[in-house]
Design goal:
The chain is mostly helical and about 450 residues long. The protein contains 22 helices and no strands. It has helices at about 15-40, 45-50, 55-65, 70-85, 90-105, 110-115, 120-150, 155-180, 185-190, 195-210, 215-225, 230-240, 240-250, 255-270, 275-305, 305-330, 335-345, 350, 355-360, 370-385, 385-395, 400-420. The longest helix is centred in the first third of the chain and has 31 residues, at about 120-150. It is globular, with a radius of gyration of 21 Å. It starts with 13 loop residues before the first helix and ends in a 30-residue tail after the last helix. The relative contact order is 0.16. It comes from Amycolatopsis rhabdoformis. Keywords: Cell membrane, Membrane, Transmembrane, Transmembrane helix, Transport. It is found in: Cell membrane.
Length: about 450
């Protein structure tokens, strides 16, 4: 493998095209995923669980958000296998279509009052399909971008997957701003459905864009050399299980995102009694800041390394989560905006800008998609249940935020340890990524390639 020509030197223009396809596709797909989280926090308790108390209805609605993370690992297993076996592009298109169909159907569901218990059952089923799709989305987009990228700019190009995710969250939250301002009767009858129906148009655009991107040079050479493995999972668990475990633990940093996006919104509106509109605007502005800061952190990582920036972001979140949740408890909108944007829009992005390259660089091409997908999605599955766990443990009291903050900070510290004890990979040539006992080149050997 070391003797082959460098498979990570695509023709001019391909890295940008692959990054654009990853950015737009992730924005469109995660628009679907995040509108569900917003609806779960604001309205699903009343629509699908009206017979419960307000607190219990909110808890049940947040649990359906977490249910989507159950099938993420299954999606990672299935779609990771397909991506390493048959190519990254096919999985990118399949995940987009599955997410779009599931989301539109959520918007068509009758309420509990109309259909009875079948209504929340169907809601959970569609949420499971969303999770199945999301299980392969980011890993496929990351692998596509990484394998098209020049060796000295892998973090920069792969970071567009995550900035696309943030853009999808911006659009999802922004769409809910006018919807949340509707009169209560209109919101609960038809208003909440509009963001889900709009998904059909957005997925059509994403499908057109992703069809135009080429398969990666790395995968094409694997096919030409007859080195595509029949059972990527077997090779992954035999030779790379330690790296999968490291990714699982490191991926717990996503707990910051789920707490910020779902738990904090529900706590602010349903427990503290703050207005929905400014809390939604915190999410919009934090994600705008994230879209700007993600490529900047990634460029810095290509120059200075992955680990030190990742760890700094994790530990920074461990501190700022106390300030943000405390500001919500105090009802201080000024500090809510300052700390929310600072934590999620700037500090947290030091991790989300880097993990697409850092995790992908742990594995060789033949198991890269499987390794990244399985590792991240198991970690994300744990993180996805945190809003409902936090709501159950914290209770209804206004001061219950402190326990949630302590728990989230502890996960950030665990993440920092997992990253700090991993291999530094930013100077390893693409063809040697994931190979054992391969020293990283010294100096600027990798960075010399334009």
């Amino acid at each position: 493998m070391n003797g082959r020509p460098d498979r990570a030197a695509p023709a001019a223009g391909r890295p940008a095209k692959a990054a654009l396809a990853a950015w737009i596709g992730s924005a469109l797909e995660y628009y679907d995923f995040f509108i569900y989280g917003t609806a779960a926090a604001l309205v699903f308790g009343k629509i699908f669980f009206p017979s419960s108390s307000p607190a219990a209805g909110t808890l049940l609605a947040l649990s359906t958000f977490g249910v989507g993370y159950v099938t993420r690992p299954l999606g990672a297993l299935l779609l990771g296998h397909l991506g390493d076996r048959f190519g990254r592009k096919r999985v990118l298109i399949a995940t987009l279509l599955l997410m779009g169909a599931s989301t539109v159907l959520v918007g068509c569901l009758p309420s509990y009052a109309s259909l009875g218990v079948a209504s929340p059952v169907l809601l959970v089923a569609l949420r499971l399909l969303q999770g199945l799709s999301a299980g392969g989305e980011q890993a496929s987009a990351n692998s596509m971008s990484l394998e098209h990228a020049p060796e000295n700019r892998r973090a920069y190009y792969t970071s567009f997957t995550l900035s696309g995710t943030q853009a999808g969250q911006i659009v999802a939250t922004a769409v809910f701003l006018p919807v949340a301002a509707l009169p209560q009767d209109a919101l609960l009858s038809w208003g909440w459905r509009v963001p889900f129906w709009l998904s059909a148009v957005m997925v059509a655009v994403g499908y057109f864009i992703r069809r135009s991107v080429e398969e990666t040079p790395v995968f094409r050479e694997e096919v030409a050399a007859g080195e595509v493995v029949r059972l990527p999972l077997a090779v992954l668990l035999r030779d790379h299980w330690a790296d999968v475990l490291r990714v699982i633990v490191a991926a717990l940093i996503a707990s910051v995102s789920t707490i910020f996006t779902v738990y904090a919104l529900s706590y602010a509106v349903n427990t503290v009694g703050l207005s929905k509109t400014p809390m939604l605007w915190v999410g919009v502005l934090a994600n705008v800041a994230a879209v700007i800061s993600i490529p900047l952190w990634a460029k810095l990582s290509d120059r200075k390394g992955r680990k030190k920036i990742f760890v700094a972001g994790s530990l920074g979140c461990a501190v700022l989560i106390f300030g943000y949740l405390g500001a919500i408890a105090a009802g201080s909108y000024v500090w809510i905006f300052v700390l929310g944007i600072g934590m999620f829009g700037i500090v947290y992005t030091a991790t989300s800008a880097i993990w697409p390259s850092f995790y992908g660089e742990m594995f060789p091409a033949r198991v890269r998609l499987s390794g990244t997908a399985i590792g991240t999605q198991i970690g994300f599955a744990i993180s996805g249940f945190l809003p409902s766990v936090a709501a159950a443990v914290a209770g209804d009291g206004r001061g219950a935020w402190l326990g949630v903050a302590i728990f989230t900070a502890g996960l950030c510290v665990v993440n920092a340890i997992a990253v700090a004890t991993g291999r530094e990979t930013y100077r390893v040539p693409t063809a040697q990524l994931g190979l054992k006992h391969t020293p990283a080149p010294q100096g600027n050997e990798v960075g010399a390639r334009p």
